[in-house]
Amino acid sequence: MIREDLLDLNDALQHPGRKISVDITTELPDEGELDLVAPLEGFLEAVSTGNLLLITGEFKAKAVVECARCSGPVEKLVNFEIDEQFPVVGTPSSLSAKDFAQVAADEPFPLFEGNQLIVEALLRQALLLALPSQPLCEFGWDGDCPVAAEQEVALPKASNARPEFLALQNLLGPDSDEIDDDPEDA
């Protein structure tokens, strides 16, 4: 059975220095967490050094993400690069008739079946890491967002505290005492 999401890298593994290049377009159909507006497009290149399998590539995608302020949908263009190294065990068959090289991937989620790369698993992982952590709609934090106003989302209040301590104030839980931002009230 031939799977479309597998990329056979055995030729590169058995012949160090030989490069495999492929253009890839996918919609990541098995990904429920991502809402892609257009297919993910880019290219992958793989080459073996004998001890390492080097996989590089560049991709772009347009995804719908949730605004960090108002939770409304926001379309974002996401560009990302792939630069991965996987250890190779064994001797390439081009150098020894008694052995062959294999990828010794040790990932929490499998990226290889034998010497075949599960392309969509690698792309899904890289895309999730490249998504913005706090995407904002066109109004940003300072603008009058109608969706945020409707949901009564308050803007962060200005403070005269030092910025490094403001970042720590988010660590306070709901049961802890509130910190007074105005030192004149103390």
Plain-language structure description:
The structure is a single chain. The protein has about 190 residues and is an alpha+beta fold. The protein has two domains: about 5-130; about 150-185, no CATH class. The chain has four helices and eight strands, in the order βαβββββββααα. The protein has helices at about 10-15, 120-130, 145-150, 165-170; strands at about 5-10, 20-25, 35-50, 50-65, 75-90, 100-105, 110-115, 115-120. The chain has a five-stranded antiparallel beta sheet with strand order 2-3-4-5-6. Strands 1-8-7 form a three-stranded antiparallel beta sheet. Strand 2 and strand 3 (about 35-50) form a beta hairpin. The protein starts with 5 loop residues before the first strand and ends in a 17-residue tail after the last helix.
List the helices and strands and how they pair.
Blueprint: E1 6-8, H1 10-14, E2 19-26, E3 35-48, E4 52-66, E5 73-89, E6 102-103, E7 112-113, E8 116-118, H2 119-130, H3 146-150, H4 163-169
Antiparallel strand pairs: 1-8, 2-3, 3-4, 4-5, 5-6, 7-8
State the low-pLDDT regions, or none: none
Overall pLDDT, averaged?
80
Structural class: alpha+beta
Shape: elongated
Give the biggest beta sheet.
5 strands, antiparallel
Number of domains: 2
> In DSSP terms, counting alpha (H) and pi (I) runs of 4 or more, how many helices?
4
Radius of gyration: 24 Å
Number of strands: 8
From the N-terminal CA to the C-terminal CA, the straight-line distance is: 73 Å
The fraction of residues in strands falls at 25-35%
Helix content: 10-25%
